[in-house]
């Protein structure tokens, strides 16, 4: 039986529905023909290594199962910018973005089915991550929690919430910490976040750019980072260490088929198989090896020791979901605009 049908019962149902909908027009076009085709995954910054490995493995699996030669390509950048690129015409077969709101934006533009969140298991988020601090070896500024980031002697590197999905997770993690610290007093919470951003010395457009500013350019004392991005840095260099704050957020990067594009190109079958393979045991192993937290419990246990232990909250519990959080904090005139001065 084929791997995309055996990954799980739920995945099998999704795959079967998707495959049944592929008609003769698809069979005559793009990657659904026996000839070569191109397939584009538009993703956010820190997934470069993950999908470089995943695409290489999936290319062989898809060739073995379908006989088709497909060139799997990826585009990386700040999640918000990537979503806008798709809306403006970048023909992505799938998107694998930092947060659900960015996929919702593409859905609102009519390119993705509005019920995309229910198309794949775990709200179409096959792996998770969180937000941690990356500091230089020995932690010279003695940084241990969010409180330390508002000290006058600490300089911060973080991406821009207007363009980066990771930055929005960073901001919300800090906001919820401050809200609990100040018992919901919004004036004090805003003051805390304002001070934090006053300490920012590099506000890059995406998470990978922020890592470059901190690691290669030597800017700042601390990088507020995706957990997987911090772990990759540690793997490549002994000159850094991770600090796990007392409270952080459960980050759930989202995946979706870009319906309008795949129906035009005839790539729906391979697009659905591509996402389903992320949930397979092999796909989950690839995610874990690239420092994402896999959904598969057995595989998570296998790699558990590499992940710091944190107390995590969800965006639904703390902020009422991404639609509400986006409107209140990151839309024009929202709290980020109110507190941030360049």
TrEMBL record:
The signal sequence is 1-20
**UniProt KW keywords:** Periplasm, Signal, Transport
List the PROSITE patterns.
PROK_SULFATE_BIND_2, PROKAR_LIPOPROTEIN
Asked if the Swiss-Prot or TrEMBL record annotates the protein with the keyword Signal, the reply is: yes
Q: What is one process in the GO biological process aspect for this record?
A: sulfate transmembrane transport
Annotated Gene Ontology MF terms?
A: molecular carrier activity; sulfur compound binding
Subcellular location(s) per record? Periplasm
Transcription among keywords: no
InterPro entries documented for this protein: Sulphate/thiosulphate_BS, Thiosulph/SO4-bd
Can you supply one Gene Ontology CC term for this chain's record?
A: periplasmic space
Q: What is its main location?
A: periplasm
Q: Which family does it belong to?
A: Belongs to the prokaryotic sulfate-binding protein family.
Q: Which PANTHER family match?
A: SULFATE-BINDING PROTEIN
Q: Which NCBIfam families match?
A: 3a0106s03, PRK10752.1, PRK10852.1
Annotated protein name in UniProt? Sulfate transport system substrate-binding protein
């Amino acid at each position: 039986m084929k791997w995309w049908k055996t990954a799980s019962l739920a995945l099998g149902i999704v795959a079967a529905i998707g495959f049944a909908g592929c008609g003769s027009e698809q069979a005559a076009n793009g990657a659904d023909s026996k000839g070569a085709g191109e397939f584009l995954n538009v993703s956010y910054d820190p997934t470069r290594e993950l999908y470089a490995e995943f695409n290489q493995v999936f290319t062989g699996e898809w060739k073995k199962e379908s006989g088709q030669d497909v060139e799997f390509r990826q585009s990386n950048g700040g999640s918000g910018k990537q979503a806008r690129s798709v809306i403006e015409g970048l023909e992505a077969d799938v998107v694998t973005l930092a947060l659900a709101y960015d996929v919702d934006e593409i859905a609102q533009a009519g390119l993705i089915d509005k019920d995309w969140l229910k198309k794949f298991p775990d709200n179409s988020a096959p792996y998770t991550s969180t937000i941690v601090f990356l500091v230089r070896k020995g932690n010279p500024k003695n940084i241990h929690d969010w409180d330390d980031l508002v000290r006058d002697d600490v300089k911060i590197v973080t991406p821009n919430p207007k363009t980066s999905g990771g930055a929005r997770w960073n901001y919300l993690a800090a906001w919820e910490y401050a809200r609990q610290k100040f018992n919901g007093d919004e004036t004090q919470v805003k003051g805390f976040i304002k001070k934090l951003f006053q300490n920012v010395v590099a506000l890059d457009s995406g998470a990978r750019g922020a890592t470059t500013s901190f690691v290669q350019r030597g800017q700042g004392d601390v990088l507020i980072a995706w957990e997987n991005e911090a772990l990759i840095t540690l793997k490549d260099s002994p000159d850094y260490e991770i600090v796990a704050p007392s409270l952080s957020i459960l980050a759930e990067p989202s995946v979706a088929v870009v319906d309008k594009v795949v129906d035009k190109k005839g790539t729906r079958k391979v697009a659905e198989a591509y996402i389903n393979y992320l949930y397979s045991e092999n796909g989950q192993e690839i995610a874990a090896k690239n420092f994402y937290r896999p959904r598969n419990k057995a595989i998570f246990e296998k790699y558990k020791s590499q992940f710091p232990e944190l107390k995590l909250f969800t965006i639904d519990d703390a902020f009422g979901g991404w639609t509400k959080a986006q409107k209140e904090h990151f839309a024009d005139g929202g709290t980020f605009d109110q507190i941030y001065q360049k």
